[in-house]
Amino acid sequence: MENLNERQKEVVNQIDGPVLVIAGPGSGKTKTMIERVAHILNQKEVEPENILLATFTEKASKELISRISKKIKNTMDISGMYIGTIHSICLRIIDENLEYSFLEKNYKIFDDLEQRFFIYSKIKEFEKIEGYREFILTTESSGAWKKAGEFQKWIDRINEEGLSNKKIVDTTDENIKFLKRLHKRYVELLREENGVDFSNIQLECYRILSENPEVLRKLQEKIKYIMIDEYQDTNKIQEKLFFLIAGDRKNICVVGDDDQGIYRFRGATVRNILEFQKNFKEGECKKVELNINYRSNQDIIEFCENWMEGTNWDNWRYKKEIISGREDINQCSGVVKISVNGSQRQWNEKIYKFISYLKASRKIDDYNQIAFLFRSFKDSKIKYLVEYLERNGIKVYCPRSGNFFERDEIRFVIGFLLCIFHQGKDYLLEQYYNECYIYARKEIVLDEEAVEYIKDIREKITDMVENENSQEKIGSFLDIFYNLFNFKCFLKYINLFEEDILQNRTTYNLGIFSDILLKFDILCKIKDINRENLKKVSDYFFNYHLKYLKEIKLHEYESEETPKGAVSFLTIHQAKGLEFPIVIIGSLDNEPHVFDTPQKKLEFEILEEFEPKSKVDIYDFYRLYYTGFSRAKNLLALTCIESQGDYKVPKPIFKKVYDELNDIRSENFKYHRLEIDKIDESKRKDIFSFTSHIALYEKCPLLYNFFRKYKFVEKSTREAIVGVLAHDTLEYINKNLKRNNLITVEEIKEEYYKNYNNILRQNTIKIDEKIISKLLENIIKYFTEYKNITSFIKENEIKISFIRDNYIIEGIADLVLEKDGEIEIIDFKTGRVTQDISSYEAQLRIYAYLIGEKYKKTVKRARLFYINEREDRKLLEIDISQEAITETIKNFDIVTNKILNNYFSYEELKKERCENCFLRKYCEKTL
């Protein structure tokens, strides 16, 4: 801990009891949390599974896992640690106690967009609820899609507050009564679909623990230390959940900064961090303030503090005295303005010249040292600035500009689909669709194969329409999309070898579009478009589905790291947790608005009161811009097109701090003394899985690139569905046998078909009944005849993590047996015994190595259990000798090194594997 300051050490050493850490910007809170976890693991000799560490984003979670793994021995398996986003931790707790949940195996997790589509599809159900008409009159929602968005907002808010909120329980307000009824019906419909949305995840986790004392007791015995990052962004139900798990130990450490609480619109409340100490007896909770900012120069820190002092906070924030912990390498002001009292063109030119001069004078090495931050991208001035910079050779990374559907690659795909489906329809009357159609058609007519393909599908569609006995079918929308990879006219949008994100945005965006199509196919339960569903499916897709997606302005692909070679244009929310040497803040024409609408009043009626109603929007405004200002390391610039009169810019709220700044062209700004930091290279370890990463890469590096790097979705296969069905049912059997629960063959059958039906909800493929029946027969045979396995179950479904210097591999071991003190591993397979089982062998060898370390015993045997094979071929023993394990580890190092170095050569491909691959023609035409 020699690299920690005294207050950071205090946090690390204060292990027992409640701890509140107020961590200002750049104060090293991540490093402090990592050292605290390492201290608990290494010095207190606590097991990883005894620690819960919650973060705000997946990216932060991966970074914590990576950096913690560097602080502990490689032989320590940290997969048991409850580490991740709050939602991912809640999902793990739900999965571990699924029998107590309303959810069943293979439940569906709705993202925000899927949740809205789900509500939209059930809108007629909600119209039947008492009070519906009166509630809708208080909103500005017209049309089913907008109503769905309105309902989604209130359902999430109730989930985040918790149904036990007295203001919700005891209400006499008719609108809140309607929302309670709406929420109740919504949850009923979710259960019918075996689904859960993001806000419902935490509520269901809390319900399981609060209603099942034995489940709670076991979890409290396991989790001894709790740490929550970004505590100012937690909501009420999350806080209740953490305190429930902490129990009487009260070993809960929360870290955050009330000044950066910017997620009220998602249900977060700064009350959690401001009143954290009030949950304990006086003097029981230790408070530590990390007040040394290692990110920003002192003048940037002082500017941020001056900004926060622009309003009267009373007691609604912690007073802080933040100082810079870095040597101030600048000999000039670190806070300036880029002011223009003129036109958009003058503003564009001034910013362009400033950036160009920074590069030409070698103050910066890469454009990614600069970030522009805005409140949102609704302002057209930002769009014109981006276009001007790119037109003049400065690349811009702006994934949330809302231009996804304006991209050429997306227009082409939509145009291609319109070439197939527009006959006899009025889709092309829509201007956007007509533009897409014309754009794509120009390319398609030059490609004979594409033309013939479209003609063929059109003929099938004509037959469907005109022939009532037609048996024609044309696949799903996703099938049609993947057929595009056969045509030259499409290939210019695909490059599976370009490493530069900006150069290859088209491929990334098409990966996103593949996900849109898969979700549509599942939503409409489409395996094949045929006579029965043609009109309904195509009309809904073009007249509603795509229009709704276009309306909400989908984001483009978003990189976890700042791309090289481009200036970043981000929202302030998007930049949370990031830092840049130069930050330029726009949106100075914004100001807080204190709305007094029926909806705002209703929100205050639901929320437990905390800050004064008249101050909420003002406080949130100050916190938002403080978060943006504090991203800067060396130089912070405020910029706008100044104007007077009725529409003053900057707005009065910025006027005082803005007017005091020197302009970049001022003689008082000593540009030649400016020193700029470089962007720190990410040192985060990549995390791989055995099956979806290592085995896939060894099968085909190009497919790995396609599915993992560019995130194209994989189509379901019968083999995969059978595998999931077998695995889930075997897990049910093994879990109950381990717990000594008596189960019958009839109960296994019931579980089996329940699992099958739940799998079908999320897939468009049905399996032949003979295959389903035979699989069930073999699973029951395992239960009744393999007592030499089922009688000695020690553990099932064990999470495994294999830690190396530059990567981590994760997996799950199906079954661990212990007989006469000897350990054995079983891994179930549904395929047939083949000659090439190398990936299975490698997987089991690593499992044997790690499970041996876990139990401090040598694993004596590892076997594959082929559930569908005949008796003499069911069990296959794997060589797990030390020599074989050593060779496997060596091969893993080679494979992961290739992945990490973007080595995706096709020269080593086994050509026989290409015969049935949907990318075969793409490879033939491009490689």
Task: Please characterize this protein's 3D structure.
The chain is of the alpha/beta class. A seven-stranded parallel β-sheet has the order 13-14-12-15-16-11-17. Strands 3-2-6-7-1-8 form a six-stranded parallel β-sheet, with helices on both faces. Strands 18, 19, 20, 21, 22 and 23 form a six-stranded mixed β-sheet that branches. A hairpin with a 3-residue loop joins strand 19 (793-803) and strand 20. The protein is globular. The model has no long low-confidence stretch (mean pLDDT 91).
**Order of strands across the main sheet:** 13-14-12-15-16-11-17
Rg result: 29 Å
Could you state the oligomeric state of the chains shown? single chain
Alpha-carbon distance between the two ends: 52 Å
Q: Into which percentage range does the β-strand content fall? A: 5-15%
Give me the count of strands: 23
Overall geometry comes to globular
The portion of residues assigned to helices is 40-55%
Number of helices: 37
Structural class: alpha/beta
